[in-house]
Amino acid sequence: MRTDVVFTLTGPDRVGIVEEVTGAILGLGANIGASRMARLGGAFAMLMQVSLPTEALPDLDAAFAPLVASGYSVTTSADIAAATADSKTPDTGTASSYRVEVSGADHEGIVHDIASGLAAAGINIESAETRIVEAPVTGAPLFEMTALVSVPAEVDGTGWIAALTEAAARANVDVEVSAGE
Predict the structure, then answer these.
(1) How many structural domains are present in the chain?
(2) CB–CB of 149/125 below 8 Å?
(3) Most C-beta atoms within 10 A of its C-beta, which of 83, 92, 113, 159?
(4) CA separation for the pair 156, 164 (Å, rounded)
(5) What phi and psi, each to the nearest 5 degrees, are found at residue 36?
(6) Same domain for 34 and 13
C-alpha cells in the first residue's frame, strides 16, 4: 500500500540540493508527483507531493535528518486524503478554472487584498506566482501576480468578478480574468 505525503523544504540555495533531496526520496522507494521548486533570494524552496510505501513512513524523518542538521527546514504531512477530509477545500470536480492577472505599482497588501476578494466570493486559489519587475522608463517597482483559481458551479459567474474588481480597485491595481488552463 502507498501513502501520499506533502513534503516541503526551505533553506539556503546550493548546488546539489535537488539531487540530495530526490536521492533521499528515491531511497525510500517513493515517487515524486506534482512539485514546485524555486530559488527566492538566496534561499531555495521545494514543495512536492510524494507517494511512498506505507511501511516507509516511519523512516521519513530519518531520511532528511542530515538536511535538518545542516540548517534546512523540512516538513511532511502524511496522508493527504485524511488531512483534507475535514478541510473547507471545495470540490473542484464541478468547478471552472480561470486565470487572474494582477499588475500595478508595488506596495504592501496587494496579495492579501486580492486573496480576500476571492475568498469572500467563495473562490479557491489553486496556484499563484508573484514577482516584482522594473517599469520600462522609470525603473519603479511594478507588482505582477498570476493566479489560477477554481470557481465552483454554484458561484455567480459575474458576481465573483465584480468582487475581485472591487478588491483590485481598493489595492489600486489592474486585474484581468480569462479562461484557465
Answers:
(1) 2
(2) yes
(3) 113
(4) 12
(5) -140, 135
(6) yes
Cα of 93 vs its chain's centroid, Å = 19
Residue pair 28/60 in contact by the 8 Å Cβ criterion? yes
Write out the chain's pLDDT in tens, 181 residues.
999 999 999 999 999 999 999 999 999 999 999 999 999 989 999 999 999 999 999 999 999 999 999 999 999 986 444 445 455 554 556 889 999 999 999 999 999 999 999 999 999 999 999 999 999 999 999 999 999 999 998 887 788 999 999 999 999 999 999 987 7
Local structure of residue 87 (DSSP, 8 states): S
User: Computed over its alpha carbons, how large is the radius of gyration of the chain?
Assistant: 20
Whether residues 65 and 102 share a domain: the answer is no
Look up the CATH number of the domain holding residue 51.
Answer: 3.30.70.260
The CA distance from 142 to 131, in Å, is: 8
Cα dist from 178 to 102, 117, 161, whole Å: 12, 17, 11
Grid cell listed for 172:
489600486
Q: What whole-number distance in Å separates Cα of residue 163 and Cα of residue 116?
A: 10
This prediction's pTM:
0.76
Q: What is the extent of the structural domain holding 112?
A: 92-179
d(CA 171, CA 181): 26
